[in-house]
Amino acid sequence: MRFLDLFAGIGGFRLGMESAGHECVGFVEIDKYARQSYQAIHQTEGEWTANDITTVEKHDIESIGHVDIICGGFPCQAFSVAGQRRGFEDTRGTLFFDVARFASILRPKLLFLENVKGLLNHDKGETFRVILSSLESLGYDVEWQLLNSKDFGVPQNRERVFIIGHLRGERVREVFPIRRYDTETNDSGQKRISDIRVESGLIHSRGFETRKDGISHCIKGAEGGSSKNFLLVEYDRKNGVGEPLDVAHTLNSSDWRGLNRNQKQNAVVYNSDARGGITQSDTVGTLRANSHGNHPMIEVRPVLTPDRMEKRQNGRRFKDDGEEMFTLTGQDRHGVAIGENQQYRIRKLTPRECWRLQGFPDWAFDKAKESGVSDSQLYKQAGNSVTVNVISEIAKRLT
């Protein structure tokens, strides 16, 4: 179906809609840097476009022609906590009525809108009531759902309200509710959680291959109540350096020979510049320099709670259906190192990583970056965007 992309930003709606087979006929975006990224990423030549939605005249809207779907994440700052939630008192909050104006002229069979969770209870729910009643007065039957990006394959806790308006009199296929699709079930549809405890282990994502242009898998852990420990130890050597603008490698600390149940070993690693593997000595494993010589890169430090191996947390062995999985607790078998003059460094997310968190492929980020958009704008654009994965899942249900 043909869709119009309002408040287009960098094209999160567009990528999701096009992935489901829909066709974009035009877009509206006022921010010049967002337009720069949008036009670098998407093939927009010959499409209808406008900058300021509030200044578009009726005859210009009519010139767009037939439109099946109007999409738009109308500005959310007026309803978000960070934006002080002024709602319709903020000029950005009144931009919803421009969406309604476009809908009244083009009469698409579907409206597909997005906003922040705070829209639901802003002004004690009055703002959301006005939006719903406005759409209903235009002849649209409305359904909506609160969805979280973390349930759609990206490691980001981001709740947003999605609104679907069906033009009254058209054939209607309900879009919502959409249920989480990233949980494994048994034949009866019930979710199960393994009866194991993972301690100081490395768990690989099972059955998937991480592609260069994909989203990185997350390590998952669980705290259970089994009396038997499930030890997973693997040596995976990481040498060499990455490209200057690439994502930093993670430091893997592992024993050359692995661990067994009758062996105790403590190792403290706190220098992020170290590379290589851990070798075992009579006292403590030390991290060797890249030359594999006997030049220790770390030194022994006292640790808090040295008897941590004897103190374990017991949790429930099973969880009820519908509950989220346990997370790995910070209390592990190694205790907490007490160091002096540590060279700890916490790095911020790169612009590329922020785009990945919104489901954008690397090629899209590269095109925006190569067009000359600054890092500060790339950060802003990622923060203002919708999550592509969520849009794509909804778009598949639009008929």
Automatic annotation (TrEMBL):
It comes from the Bacteria. It catalyses: a 2'-deoxycytidine in DNA + S-adenosyl-L-methionine = a 5-methyl-2'-deoxycytidine in DNA + S-adenosyl-L-homocysteine + H(+). The lineage of its organism: Bacteria, Bacillati, Bacillota, Bacilli, Bacillales. It comes from Alicyclobacillus tolerans. NCBIfam families: dcm (TIGR00675). This is Cytosine-specific methyltransferase. The keyword Transferase applies. InterPro entries: C5-MTase (IPR050750), C5_DNA_meth_AS (IPR018117), C5_MeTfrase (IPR001525), C5_meth_CS (IPR031303), SAM-dependent_MTases_sf (IPR029063). Belongs to the class I-like SAM-binding methyltransferase superfamily. C5-methyltransferase family. Its EC number is 2.1.1.37. The keyword Methyltransferase applies. The active site is at C76. GO terms for molecular function: DNA (cytosine-5-)-methyltransferase activity.
